[in-house]
Amino acid sequence: MIGAVLCSRTGLPGGRRGPVDARGRRKLLDWTFWAAFAIGVFPDLASLGIYFAYDWITGSGGGWRGIPEGIFTLYRMTHSLLGMGIGVAALWWWKPRLLLPLMAWPVHILCDVPTHGAGRFVTPLFWPVTLKGFHGWNWWEVPGLFAAIWISIGLLWLTVLGMRLSWRGPKAKAAE
Predict the structure, then answer these.
(1) Quick check: 168 pLDDT over 60?
(2) Do the Cβ atoms of 122 and 135 come closer than 8 Å?
(3) In a domain, 66, yes or no
(4) Among 75, 91, 107, 148, which residue's Cβ finds the most Cβ atoms within 10 Å?
């Protein structure tokens, strides 16, 4: 959700007006919202999502303790600056219009850095050069941090709502 609010025209980059259609009419959501949302969750879905989907479908019950090393390799690839850089560059080359939503990937990584502590889920920014990373606070072990994250996301969306409600449109401005 943080990627969608920071990296879509529906969110803060849309300014006071927000997304518009081809005729210039305001829209509630646009494609950049869904693209930023999908790209923002991609680093986790492309690694842990694969494992947990398999775990759920097969009923193997491995849970958090049964994650194989191959999944952690995918996690490191999708959470490193090199992996993110290659992914963003390739997608931007393929579809230049994706530039704004693609920024949800680095936002995801930057949000993970302070919210993932030492251990298997430390964010490996410089993988494959090193597995070392910043030792932040594990959001799953610090209830206040978890709450602060969701409160911050809610406040960002309330800011967007306030901006959109305060926009008076070109006709109102012309009448002044």
Answers:
(1) yes
(2) yes
(3) yes
(4) 75
